[in-house]
Amino acid sequence: MVVRLDTLVRYTSNENNHSESDVTLYSEEENTRGLYVHWVGITAEGEEGLTEEEISYIYKNMLFYILRRDRVFFGMYMKMQLYSSYLSTPSFTIRIALTLKGLDYEHKSVNLFKKEQFSPVYSPFLQNVEFLKINPMGYVPAIIDGDIVLADSFAILLYLEEMYPRHPLIPCDLAKRIVNYQAASIVTSSMQPLLRIPVMFYIEEKAGLDEKISWVHYYLGKCFAALETLLKDHAGKYATGDEIMLADVYLAPFLIGYPQQYNFDMSKFPLLSSLGDAYIKVPAIENAMPEKQPDFPIN
Amino acid sequence: MVVRLDTLVRYTSNENNHSESDVTLYSEEENTRGLYVHWVGITAEGEEGLTEEEISYIYKNMLFYILRRDRVFFGMYMKMQLYSSYLSTPSFTIRIALTLKGLDYEHKSVNLFKKEQFSPVYSPFLQNVEFLKINPMGYVPAIIDGDIVLADSFAILLYLEEMYPRHPLIPCDLAKRIVNYQAASIVTSSMQPLLRIPVMFYIEEKAGLDEKISWVHYYLGKCFAALETLLKDHAGKYATGDEIMLADVYLAPFLIGYPQQYNFDMSKFPLLSSLGDAYIKVPAIENAMPEKQPDFPIN
Hints:
Chains A, B: InterPro entries: Glutathione-S-Trfase_C-like, Glutathione-S-Trfase_C_sf, Glutathione_S-Trfase, Glutathione_S-Trfase_N, GST_C, GST_Zeta, Thioredoxin-like_sf. Chains A, B: GO terms for molecular function: glutathione transferase activity; maleylacetoacetate isomerase activity. The structure is a homodimer. The first copy, chain A, has helices at residues 52-61, 89-100, 131-134, 153-163, 174-191, 197-207, 209-231, 246-255, 258-261, 270-279, 283-286, and strands at 5-10, 24-27, 35-43, 46-47, 62-68, 71-77, 80-84, 105-109, 120-122, 128-130, 142-145, 148-151. By secondary structure, the first copy, chain A, is of the alpha+beta class. Chain A folds into three domains: 5-77, no CATH class; 80-166, Glutaredoxin; 174-286, Glutathione S-transferase Yfyf (Class Pi), Chain A, domain 2. In chain A, a hairpin with a 5-residue loop joins strand 9 (120-122) and strand 10. In chain A, helix 2 (89-100) runs parallel beside helix 4 and helix 2 packs across helix 8. The interface between A and B is large, with 44 and 44 residues.
């Protein structure tokens, strides 16, 4: 991530306990971000108006400071924050993309079983905000990148692709590009939504465990069959050639471990099976795997 | 649509009954399309190797022909083809986008109740192909635009946006752009997939009619609440300003008639309600409504 001057996080200087409404985030220049300048009133006693957590964050991340009259400006580098869960396939997708693009990020675990997606989470200078203010859907993944707060994997990927051109995920070649769009869209709109944990819980509760398994097998089978057909004329080492592209970052979470977890027979899908084998050898994918994440349960 | 030289539909000249594998579609220049040149062997008897339907299609659409040795090249203008159903909200979305972009298209109705998505459909020069060859998922919408065959609404919209810049659906402004991505993504990955007809049939079959209604209300409520929050700082006359954008083409099908159809109370969503009121006054949306489509049942 390139460090550039961008956003001022402005605090009113005369209050010790500022509420969230006192914090205004605004951009000096829209398309640049990564470096924060924090403006705070300073008194004889020190950094008035900041919490201890914020002061500690500043000391850790400060690149420079400027004194001007009764204000001090702290120039800080803030990493992108990724709200993620090891249980979430689209979080897995975004972790792969961030790694491929060489973006350093802070992993913010959201424990879905503890319903943390509906609880306050700590984010510097946003105080302890409800996760619903980061993503009103209450789903992971979500990112905070400077003054950009964004959720939903497809939206995040389009944003990353535009802002961080390293390792493009959308190919220049039209035929390959639209196959990537279509494959990603099959995963995001026809597979992943129907295999979300709450949906599977609901099916099991209303119709029983066998029906849940049939449901998972039906949607995996339907989507895998379509993807196998769609990709057969485009695949190389990976889904649409010899580079990891959009289709791959969406497919990998469903091809690594997922079929085994649901005892799903992959023998009818030779292309997808070989993609799955190829993916586990890619370091960016291997490092993004659920069991490598800080929130993965040890026992 | 600009008429440009693009694709050669090549038939082998020595066979009367060519199978689908004899038909090769290829592009002369990748990013231009709209005008077809059809190459056919010609004999003393006339247009050998063409069906009557194809000959009739050529006569209707031919812009020019060129004779060269034993071949004749027919230059034809072919409209974009949209495979659509009045029952499908993403088909509605694509119809709005095509109209806004001023793209003339041929409406190919797919009757979902008659399972036509799994039956052969007529498409010039593709013979009667299984719809599954157009979209291996068996879902509408799908488009054929020259040599491009593409399905899934998000994929189609990204393609249209890149190829047909008239009435951009993705704003230049970064903040507005990502809100559009996120809103579109909420509809395509968290609302529409769970409200598909087969999913609702399944819930009704396994858990009863009341559960189906609760299911619809739950997902409409969850997504509408998130969208209301997401859009509140961005809305103008429409979802993210005073122009119809990506968010709007996705929202309109769920705000026009849909809540009434499921007896869903919109009073908690004043912004979305006002967007719904605004949409029905937009001719491109009004003309894309299910009841204006050729496949809408008369009785």
